[in-house]
Amino acid sequence: MTEVINEDGTSRRSFIATGTAAVALTAAGVGLAGAPLAEGETLPLTPQCTDGDDTPPVIEGPYFRRNSPLRTNLRTTGVSGVLLSLTGFVYDIRCRPLANVLLDFWQADQRGQYDNNTAAYRMRGHQFTDAQGRYTLETIVPKDYPGRTPHIHVKVQAPRGPVLTTQLYFPDDTRAYGMNVAALNRRDAYYVRDTVIKLGPLTGNRYQGTFDFVVRTA
Ligand SMILES: [Fe+2]
């Protein structure tokens, strides 16, 4: 199992728990470098995925915690704010969708605060892409905090692949909590346009967003 363990141990529990599934997927030829897609996995490629152009890393920052809960909905008790439904695919660098990819999300809440020490692991959760390579995250738009524009942290790891640690950002015209996201993006030293979420219009109190990851598999 050593090849799938992140340097800080992040993925140890998750991949041990799904080891059988990972082996089964390997046998089926899904999701590993050089392996052809299984029959029925011929999803159309998306414009976001360009051959050889993987998602850039962004610093981890100080607030990552190991062993986040397995969940796709981060809107737990006490969480309120502008709702965000985020979906997308994870592709390899040849734009093939990848099943069983670990995504571990963490973010600030509607006040710009992280849960760094409670058992609730608020605004933190990991999940795996489905057989079509898709993930879905139900969350809120995080508020900015001193020195940082609003962002969602994530670690992404294909089976046996390296860990991609990055951050997702918001378009300049995002409306939430009275933030001036354009100015915040401009001032943030870690902001990169390559990892900005594509947001639909604000409908009521909810945004729908998409972001596709492109990761290395070996
Ligand atoms: Fe952060």
Automatic annotation (TrEMBL):
Which GO molecular function, any one, fits this protein according to its record?
Answer: ferric iron binding
For this UniProt record, the keywords arranged alphabetically read as follows: Dioxygenase, Oxidoreductase
On the tree of life, the source organism's domain of life is: Bacteria
Matching Pfam families: Dioxygenase_C
Please state every residue range assigned to the domain named Intradiol ring-cleavage dioxygenases: 59-181
What does the similarity note say?
Answer: Belongs to the intradiol ring-cleavage dioxygenase family.
What name does this protein carry? Protocatechuate 3,4-dioxygenase beta subunit
What organism is listed for this UniProt entry? Saccharothrix tamanrassetensis
Its taxonomic path starts at:
Bacteria, Bacillati, Actinomycetota, Actinomycetes, Pseudonocardiales
